[in-house]
């Protein structure tokens, strides 16, 4: 019995030791706060899993360059007719104009929207394209959250984030 216990403990310590901690900056694009709440929930779960996560709702282009070890997670809603929320537009503009070089960086995307609109989750997809063109490479699949079917977007974001940080672990290993 003791042997089993110590074996299990050894395995757990080894697991914790080899699992690298990631630093994640969550870049929020929001109009009414839904994406911000989703970002907060994702950050909570990431921290619980031993990672560092910071939610940035007023991201400047320079914030993306402040630490090259940071993994970037976009969490962005869509407004207007497929448009990018004003608070994240400077980041999109810098990426779109190829002012930022994010070669070697990793990122993820949570795109919020509503399928009732013709351009579903379009802002998140525009940012995905801009990140890709800047040289960064995506980890995992894009999470799209449809307001028509998901009445707890923050919950969906947290569940997705749990698997996403797992994918990060594999990437960093
Ligand atoms: C004025 C307005 C325009 C919107 N336009 C779109 C759109 O073009 N495409 C889309 O997928 N969702 C659209 N949506 C839905 C929002 O993206 C969705 O409700 C999202 O959860 C809102 O997140 P936020 O509170 O963080 O801004 C729109 C919502 C509003 C209020």
Outline:
Helices cover 42% and strands 18% of the residues.
CATH topology, which one?
Answer: Rossmann fold
CATH class value: Alpha Beta
Domains (count) = 1
Secondary structure: number of strands? 6
Task: Catalogue the ligands.
Answer: flavin mononucleotide
Structural class: alpha/beta
Percent of residues in helices: 40-55%
Mean pLDDT: 92
Biggest β-sheet strands, sense, barrel:
6 strands, parallel
Sheet-strand content, in percent, reads 15-25%
User: What is the H/E string?
Assistant: HEHEEHEHEEH
Cα-based radius of gyration, to the nearest Å:
17 Å
* Alpha-carbon distance between the two ends: 32 Å
CATH homologous superfamily classification:
Flavodoxin domain
Indicate the low-confidence ranges by residue numbers: none
């Amino acid at each position: 019995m003791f042997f089993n216990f110590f074996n299990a403990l050894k395995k757990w310590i080894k697991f914790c030791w080899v699992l690298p901690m990631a630093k994640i900056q969550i870049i929020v694009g929001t109009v009414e706060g839904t994406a911000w709440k989703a970002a907060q929930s994702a950050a909570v779960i990431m921290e619980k899993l031993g990672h560092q996560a910071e939610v940035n709702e007023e991201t400047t282009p320079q914030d993306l360059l402040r630490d090259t070890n940071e993994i970037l997670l976009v969490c962005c809603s869509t407004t207007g007719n497929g448009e990018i929320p004003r608070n994240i537009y400077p980041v999109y503009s810098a990426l779109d104009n190829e002012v930022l070089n994010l070669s070697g960086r990793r990122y993820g995307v949570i795109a919020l929207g509503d399928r009732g609109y013709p351009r579903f989750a379009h802002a998140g997809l525009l940012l995905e394209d801009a990140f890709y063109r800047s040289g960064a490479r995506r980890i995992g699949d894009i999470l799209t959250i449809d307001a028509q079917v998901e009445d707890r977007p923050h919950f969906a974001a947290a569940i997705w984030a749990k698997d996403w940080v797992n994918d990060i672990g594999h990437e960093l290993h």
